[in-house]
Each structure stands twice: as C-alpha cells, then as structure tokens.
Design brief:
2 domains, homodimer, TIM Barrel, 14 helices, 11 strands, 3-stranded antiparallel sheet, alpha/beta
Chain lengths: 328, 328
C-alpha cells in the first residue's frame, strides 16, 4: 500500500522514506535493501573513490529492480569524477550536499537524472529552487555527522523552508519513528530522510561494534563539536573527549585539525574502534535504545506501521472532539 | 470551541496552550491575557521578589475570571517565600522548574494547588512521576533562555518523555505555530507551552525594543552559550559577541560569570538596551519575522486557526490516500 506524496511520485517509490548517504554505512547493500523495502536507498559516496562507487552502483542495480540514488558531498575533490561514473551508470537519482546546488543540477538534468539537494537553512532552500532541483532535503541540528552552522533544529527548519518553496520537501534530522514522520508532515514536509535508523540495520556496512554502541546510547550521548571548522555531531567516547577538552580550552582550528587527523571515521564506524575512532550518529539514536540489529525490511515495516497508527490516533482524537462538541 | 486534551481538563481551560514563565516578560498582564484568551497564563516569578509576585497575583486575579498559574524557578533563593505567597493567595496552579520536583509537590498538593514541573530529559520526567506532579513540561534545545545540558531537541525529547510516563505532557521549545502544536500531538504531547510567541505580544512586559528585535531575527540569530555554567540561548548582539569571543578562547567559569555580571537580562529585556543587555528568546523567533506586536487574543486565535487548518489538511491527505487505494 503506497503512500501518496510528491516524493513517492517523484522517485516512483511506495513510501516517502529515503535512506541518507552516510560515510561507511550506506553501501550498495543498504541502498538496495531500502529500495526493495519500498523507500529510496542512497549510496553514500562520501567515503568512496570513484571506482569503488562504480562497483557499488553496479552491485546495487543487480540487487534491486527499483529506483535508487547516490549522495555526493560536493566538497569531495573527486566529485566531478563521481558525477561521470553516475552518468555512465545511468543512476536515476542524485542527492547533492555540502556545496552549491547550481554546480551540477543542470548537468544532471541534461542526463535525465533527478536531483535533490541537502540544506540547513531557508536561505539555501531558495538557492535550490533557483538552481532548479527536483526536491529539497532540509536537515536539522539533530542529524548525525556534518551539520549546519546555524544550529536550526528540524522543528524550526521545516516550517521555515516550507514557507519559501513549494518544491517536494524531505525532512531530515531527529526522525526514527513513524510518529516522527507524521510530525514532519504536520509541519509541511512531503517525506523524510533517515540516517540513524538505517545506519544500525544488518545491511549497513558499518562495523557491528558501531551498531551496538549506537543502539545503547542515552539522551545527551551525542554532542555537536568542531563549530570552528565544520559542525559535526559526535558520540561521546575517547576521541570526542579529546575534542571536548581541546574546545573547552579554546583550541585553534589547526589544533582541532590535528586531532581530527585522517581516517578517524573509518577507524570508528568501519573498523569498529569505538573509543579511538570518530563515531557519528543522530541525536535520536537514544530513541532506539535496546533495539536489535535488524534487517531493513523489518525496520521499514515497523516504521510504516507506526506512522499509520499515529495518524489513526490523531484522526480519532479529532473525531472525538467533533463528537463531544455536537453533544454539548 | 474547546479542545479535548488531558491538559484542558486538568487546568479547566479551552486550549491546551500555556504561556511560559519568562523573566521580564510574563507579568500579570500577559498571564491574564492568555487565560482570558482560553489558555493558561503563567506569571513568571524568576524576575520578581516575593512582594512583587504578590502584587502580580492580585492584579492577575482581578483581570481574569479563569485559572492562571505561577512559574517558580526553584534555584531562586526566595523560592520558599514565593511558595508562601502563592499559598496565601490561593493560586490554582504552579509550574516549578530548575530544581527537584520532590521539593514542593506534596506541599502544594496539600494546599490543593496543581503542579507541573519542567524537564529537559526523560530521566527527570521519571523523577516527576515519582514526585507525583500533575503534568510534565518537556522543553527542548530550541527554547529561549535556560536550557538543558544534554541539548536534546523538542523533536527527540517529546517521544522520549512520552515513553516513560502517561502523565499529561506539555511540549515546549520551538513551537510558534498551530502546525507546531499538531506536530507535538503527533509525537504524543497533550499540549504546548509557548514562550517566544507570547514574549512579543502587547501584553508582555518586555521593552518594545526587545519585541521589535525578536520580530526581526533570521535563522541562526540565536545560539546556545554558557555551556560551562548553565546553558542559555541568547540572541546575537554586543553582549553575546563578548560571550562568544570569551568562549572561543576557552574562558573559565569565573571569567564567564564576570561577563554575565548582574541584571543583564533586565538591561536587555526590560530596559530595552538590546546591544549591551542579555536578550533571551527561542530559536523559532525567526518564524515570526515580520509579524507586528499584537494583542494576545489575536495571536491565540491565529494559533488555534492554524492548528485546525493543519489538522484538516492532514486528515484530507489521509482520506485522499484511502480513496486512491480503493480506485486502484
């Protein structure tokens, strides 16, 4: 049973649910599983070389008959090569982020590829509309990993973006339940992009240690750091404690860059060194505490059921209110 | 037309909408106006002496025949004297914050006063339930002024609190529109507490300069500071720039206390020195950009209309989906 939404129509999917592109999590297995479960799976190119990306696209196509996409962070030096791979492989959808939506939208449209761009403010949403993208992802402060400088939360961001554009709008950051999707719809969004919820599934390519850690977090166990560089939401661990200590004493940008070093997200998320590595996950992970590492289709079906249950409850409340008024 | 909610029943009000206790904003005029408009107005004792509080309670009772309450921040040294004033004046409702819900709940209940307590985490919500409060306010990172250390946003906080308690739940932080209230209902809240929206009304006792400033903010114009002391959301201005500079260079707690000094919120919010004073408002203020300073009843009626419009739209979408399924 498909849901009606500009997002399901645009991407020809059953549910307006997209899996975010996450370093070391969203390879072909996760993307294909999400598309097979009725959403739109994205391959996250952020932790791939162009050749590795090609391999993932080819494997993803073999693993699902449905649409899928690639998320390309535009600050990556190999972004242009990645776009060539995407065009060569006729990927139907690209989500661009961390850069200007003007840069690739026309080029991708000329190749019949649909484009969504990720923003953290209404000002950037206006630029997206000017650039002619097909959809906008608005991602709030709750999101894991890289984050906007203005720290606007999803609750404040979605209405702000909705006011400046009628484009299909995808809410991201802080959503891990079907009632979260209903809340986003209430604010005017047409669909959701989920990172955290899919990062901890069986098909995520992250290390099992990472998944177990992320399924055992309490409120307050992620915090935003690197405000002087590029704000990033980290899980509290040994690496984060070093960052926190440095920031508390007013460390310079260079000192912080030294701490980041090279490959710390790989160490943490892919290799599973959950104390020394950089661990990125959304604030809403704590809402998943105690969950098992499950297959994507189980997670998606529960999410959809939760959505319908929350919507039914809201409608029932509204009807009760109507009824009680009539009997007065 | 009253709304059905455990909150409207508990406080005997028409709409499950409470005006938060805000220093230098929520005097008797604002509280009475909110209660007269169908919500529950709170007198904010945070910027009052016990004698001033008594005066406000007496004036509020003359100005409205409906229930109203007082918000008492428990870290105030005069909290005990304030409670005596509240009991003497037979105020029907008290909202406690910034302290333990155990401290006053029984004492207030013995005097037939209803009690709600403000929390920023599900752990504190459990303590509220143990203390026997009548309702819980869960306030997220978006809120103006004092804020939780864990930085949990309203979108992540409400579902977390809803899971640990069935008590009437009031969502706060980031809500300035009726669709925001609908989103909170989707997440399981029974009502909302609004600070920002009422701080900028005609009846708010804040200075006009403060109101005009707050009605002209962009996204990103408030930021959380004083993480080393007590996290506080501030509007960007001269005072905030001094704080920001000090925090960037790793200032100690003592240095930060020196910058805070005494009476900086009075200077900013009440006296209207919007560059040198401390200005506190919620992140969602940017959603009010361009609004006029309006009377509370106008603001409340619009809020309620927005809520019904958003709910109708959601229900219509659900019905369209049902219909389209039948015709397949």
């Amino acid at each position: 049973m498909a849901m009606l939404s500009p997002i399901t129509e645009l991407f020809e999917i059953d549910y307006p649910v997209i899996s975010g592109g996450m370093v070391w999590c969203s390879g072909w297995e996760l993307a294909a599983a999400v598309s097979n479960a009725g959403g739109l799976g994205l391959i996250g190119a952020g932790s791939m070389t162009p050749d590795v990306l090609r391999e993932h696209i080819i494997k993803c196509r073999k693993a699902t008959p449905y649409n899928f996409g690639v998320n390309v962070p535009l600050m990556r030096p190999e972004a242009a090569e990645m776009m060539e791979v995407i065009a060569e492989q006729k990927v139907p959808v690209v989500f661009t982020s961390a850069g200007s939506p003007r840069k690739w939208t026309n080029w991708l449209h000329e190749r019949k590829i649909k484009v969504a761009h990720v923003v953290s403010s209404s000002a950037f949403a206006i630029k997206c509309e000017e650039a002619g993208v097909d959809a906008i992802v608005a991602e709030g402060f709750e999101a894991g990993g890289h984050n906007g400088k203005e720290e606007t939360t999803t609750l404040c961001l979605i209405p702000a973006v909705r006011r400046v554009t009628r484009l299909p709008l995808i809410a991201a950051g802080g959503i891990v339940t079907g009632s979260g999707m209903l809340a986003m719809e209430s604010l005017g969004a047409d669909g959701v992009q989920l990172g955290t919820l899919f990062a901890v599934t069986q098909e995520s390519s992250a290390h099992e240690n990472f998944k177990r850690l992320c399924l055992n977090l309490n409120e307050g166990d992620t915090l935003l750091h690197f405000r002087k560089l590029s704000p990033t939401r980290l899980v509290k661990n040994g690496f984060q404690a070093t960052v926190q200590e440095a920031e508390n004493r007013g460390a310079t940008e260079d000192e912080l860059l030294d701490i980041i070093g090279i490959g710390k997200t790989r160490t943490g998320i892919y290799e599973g060194d959950i104390d020394n590595g950089e661990i990125e996950i959304g604030q809403a992970a704590s809402l998943l505490k105690g969950h098992e590492i499950e297959p994507v289709n189980v997670v998606m079906q529960r999410f959809v059921r939760e959505y319908y249950a929350a919507r039914r409850q809201l409608i029932n409340q509204a009807m009760d209110e109507q009824m009680s008024r009539r009997t007065y």
